[in-house]
Fold this sequence. Notes:
The protein has helices at residues 11-18, 32-37, 53-58, 60-64, 81-92, 104-110, 156-165, 186-189, 201-204, 271-285, 316-322, 331-340, 348-355, 364-370, 387-397, and strands spanning 7-9, 24-28, 48-50, 72-76, 98-101, 113-116, 125-131, 136-143, 146-150, 169-174, 196-199, 212-213, 219-222, 225-233, 242-246, 250-254, 294-297, 314-315. By secondary structure, it is of the alpha/beta class. The protein has two domains: 7-107, Oxidized Rhodanese, domain 1, CATH 3.40.250; 112-340, Metallo-beta-lactamase, Chain A, CATH 3.60.15.10. The strands form three sheets. The chain has a seven-stranded mixed beta sheet with strand order 6-7-8-9-10-11-12. Strands 13-14-15-16-17-18 form a six-stranded mixed beta sheet. It has a five-stranded parallel beta sheet with strand order 1-5-4-2-3. Strand 15 (242-246) and strand 16 form a beta hairpin. Helix 10 packs across helix 12.
Amino acid sequence: MKNSTPFLYTANELFDWLSTSPDFVLLDVRNVNDFTNFCVEAPTFFPYINIPYFNFMEDVQGSIDLVPKGQKIRIVCAKEGSAKYVADLLCAHGFTDVGYLQQGIVSWGNVLVPKKVSSDDEKYILYQFVRPGKASCSYMLISKDEAMVFDPSRNIEVYKEMARKHGSRIVRTCETHRQADYISGSPQLALEKGCKMRASRHDFSGATFPYEPVVDGDVCTFTKKGPEVRVMHTPGHTMGSICYLVDNKYLLSGDTAFISTAGRPDLGGRWAEWARELYLTLMLRLRVLPDHTQVLPGHYTSWDEANDKNIFMESLGHLRQNVPAFRLAHENKFAEFIKENMRPQSPVYGEIRQVNIGFLQVNEAEADVMDLGKNECGASNYGKVGVSAELERSELKKVV
């Protein structure tokens, strides 16, 4: 019997498969710590198993016996090479439908999935770009032949391609705050002709690249009218955190408000002071907005927070009624909530903050390693970034 040949598949293809009814087993061949700390997550449940690559090297037959027979197998590893090795072994032992992920888990970390948020009767188009490998969201607002981007990732070609698809050009790239968990694409986008970066001076003072400072109450407009984008200073996650209110309807909340919690105020090292600011933001600064305002967050905790279109969006009224961070009796109770939900931040966050202000320069391979892993920006204990995350980064650095 002639052996079959494994094939390469992309991270975008993997997301598409996992968003419907996957008919395969996903086999992750990274070590147990890395698999436990950071794995592939998608809107549906699917069979997902972990058999480390080194097991296949030390006990070929024993490891192959653990892989379900007669199934389609899709393999994930750190950088592609280990997955191909295992894929070749499986094909040599009778498996007939085997694929391995191009560029490994790093490519999964950079995937952006656009979802249209605005309705067809609105005179503009608003997209949410979901980044499943980071559990983060960025946004694009298109009006006629111009576009604004909010909190973009480094994968800027996806935003540029979407703008081209709509016959538009990106004229603004806007930051809600200086990110700690991923490297921003705004400085790169601002190098494009006619594109300017907007951000808060509180977070970007001293930046080595040009940007236009924004303050509370500023209105960002397109040159040909279009929807109003109003700046709201909402300190707490950082002292420079801002939200962008689009057309008095959509609140791009950054890391201020999420679907199930609020942003962490402890990443800057002054948690008590910033927790009070966050409390005042949630209770007072956002109080001017009506319940029907649609909150579009910068991150999510799990796919359970998505609606039936896999969009992360919820009304402010729902958050006020259901999210604990919005329903604590007074600021001391809020401070207790924050203290109970604090946890160590990844050491790489400090480096990412330096990159995002221009104080630290890294190449693409180094940036891929730094960007790896699910965000830890919410005030909740749903995940722990610790030794295992740093182990995976250490392993990846060996091949950078």
